[in-house]
Amino acid sequence: MKKVSAIICAYNEEKTLKDVILSVSESLIVSEIIIVNDGSSDNTKKIIEELQKEIEITAIHLEENKGKGYAMAVAVENVVFDIMVFVDADQRTIPSGYITQLVSPLLNNECDMVLGYSTVNILSQDVNPLKILTGERALYKADITPILDKMKESRFGVETLLYFYYISIGKSIKFIRLKGMAHKDKYKKMTSFKATTSYINEGWEITYTALKNYDLLLKAIEKQIRKRI
Description:
By secondary structure, the protein is of the alpha/beta class. Helices cover 44% and strands 23% of the residues. The protein has a 7-stranded mixed β-sheet with strand order 3-2-1-4-9-6-10, sandwiched between helices. Helix 2 (44-51) links the parallel strand 2 (30-38) and strand 3 (58-62). The chain is globular, with a radius of gyration of 17 Å.
């Protein structure tokens, strides 16, 4: 069995972080846990330090908030194993065995990257029009090492960057629905004004990343057109 590194990037997620870490530690396929504390101002660091007394954790504490892309890249630079699974720190409900679901397609050589998404129910239909932006994913370290510098600059645009990069170089992606998974809504984590501002900023970072890496976007579009011809 190949060994797997689990990566959790956290920024002020004191309400959910402990349960997320414990759920990862219970997975039998995870051989390494790396947590990047992205300049949190709440009790994130304290929670990590307390859990380190019971669980083997490699903790990286950034003095200031650098953004999700930077935190993910720093984690990748420190992982030991080539198969990596990224886990969001704000999971509100955590389905059993979700890490195995994420990693299994890689172990079975079904694809190059797995994106695990949750859904919302609209008109009795479970949908997620933004599933490429999910934080739950499994992939190979070797595949993203060439773009670590780009990741560090992407902040919340990192998922967009990874998606276009994989498509542009002809890598295969598999989507799987993680039934029962739900994330904590920003409006329940902070004031309405801060939550709205945060969503706007994230939207801008996603758009900026797409525009900045337009070459990858064009290559991705070209690849899709060729597939249809």
